[in-house]
Structure formats: structure tokens, C-alpha cells
Amino acid sequence: MNLVVYQFSRSKVERGDFSHFLDLYAPEKLPQGRRLREMMNSMTFMIEGFDDDPREIHSIPEVRSFYTALREAWPYWLYFCNLDAEEFQMMCFVVCPRLPR
Hints:
Elements: E1 4-8, H1 10-15, H2 19-25, H3 33-38, E2 43-47, H4 61-73, H5 77-80, H6 86-95
Parallel strand pairs: 1-2
């Protein structure tokens, strides 16, 4: 398996711009069959530019909005996410609804 690390810049996060990602991974651009199956568990998503922010990345409103919008535009993220990556847990914190208390 080849790991794909896709990094979004802070400016793209703040603008809500994931168009380049969709240009590469839109459903009509994805392979089929075995090649698609090989992409399962192969991606990790990172965000750069918030290193000086004292908040946890998953608690930053711009990041939450960005990942929520990405999930809506590209609902296949869970299929492709590398489940072993620390970033996967962060994405889950952001895009999965909270359970009622």
C-alpha cells in the first residue's frame, strides 16, 4: 500500500477551498475494481499553519467547518483514510456528530 498524505494549508482551510483535492479525487477520477480496493486505508489528511495556535486542531472552528464541508463534498473519506494515522482520530472528532449526554 502506498500512503497518500494530503496537506491542506491554513489559507485553504480558512477559505474552505478543497477544490484541488476534488480535482484529483473526484468520483469520476477514481479507479475501479482492484485499483480502487488498493486505495482503501491509504490516505491521511493534514492541515498546516495552525502550529502556533494553542487549541487542539479538532477544536478550531475553521478546521471543523472545513472538514465538515469536505466530508459533505467527498463522503468517501472514511473508505480512504488510513485508520492507523493519528490524523484519522482527529478527523473523527471533527466530522462525527457528538453523542447526546
